[in-house]
């Protein structure tokens, strides 16, 4: 469905009904945000699911989420574990403990996910900015997902400029192998 037809439907008028002015008036940010997920992203119902509701579906999803997960010999992360080289790897690093490196992948995953959950809880307890606007709950977690945060499993930095994958550095491949990890599955890749 085209945006024009969608807007006409929103205004309960048929397209071509001489309703151009009415359609232009209905062409609001809200109506575009309703149309885009529904008709261009195969995300039917997403607009309503994103409605702000305290304790809603997104909060539940975040409470049950993980930054990393290990199943048998497979490590799952959203963006990857490398940032161009072993010294910039997210593997074994947890933001709360920048000087500590976890050699055990399972211990690292558990600690990283505990850090994640503590910041989700902090966001739930303090969802808005402090009065002086210096902090809010979960702010460290928000920083962790930004592109300029080095060593995050959320941002993918596993490709060279031409789009080809960077081979895992030997030290990282060795650490994964020593921990019984044979595969790393990351999002947005074939």
From TrEMBL:
InterPro entries (alphabetical): Metallo-depent_PP-like
Region spans: Disordered: 1-22
Top-level taxon of the source organism: Eukaryota
Protein name per its UniProtKB record: Calcineurin-like phosphoesterase domain-containing protein
Organism field: Peronospora destructor
């Amino acid at each position: 469905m085209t945006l024009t037809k969608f807007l006409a439907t929103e205004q309960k008028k048929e397209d071509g009904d001489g309703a151009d002015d009415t359609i232009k008036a209905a062409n609001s940010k809200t109506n575009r945000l309703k149309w885009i997920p529904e008709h261009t992203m195969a995300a039917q119902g997403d607009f309503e699911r994103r409605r702000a509701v305290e304790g809603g579906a997104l909060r539940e999803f975040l409470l049950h989420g993980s930054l990393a997960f290990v199943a048998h010999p497979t490590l799952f992360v959203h963006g990857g574990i490398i940032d161009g080289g072993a010294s910039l790897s997210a593997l074994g690093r947890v933001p709360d403990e920048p000087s500590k490196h976890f050699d055990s992948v399972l211990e690292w995953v558990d600690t990283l996910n505990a850090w994640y959950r503590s910041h989700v809880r902090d966001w739930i307890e303090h969802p808005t900015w402090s009065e002086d606007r210096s902090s809010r709950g979960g702010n460290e977690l928000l920083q962790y997902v930004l592109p300029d945060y080095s060593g995050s499993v959320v941002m993918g930095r596993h490709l060279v400029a031409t789009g080809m994958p960077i081979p895992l550095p030997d030290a990282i491949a060795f650490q994964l192998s020593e921990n019984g990890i044979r595969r790393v599955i990351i999002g947005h890749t074939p």
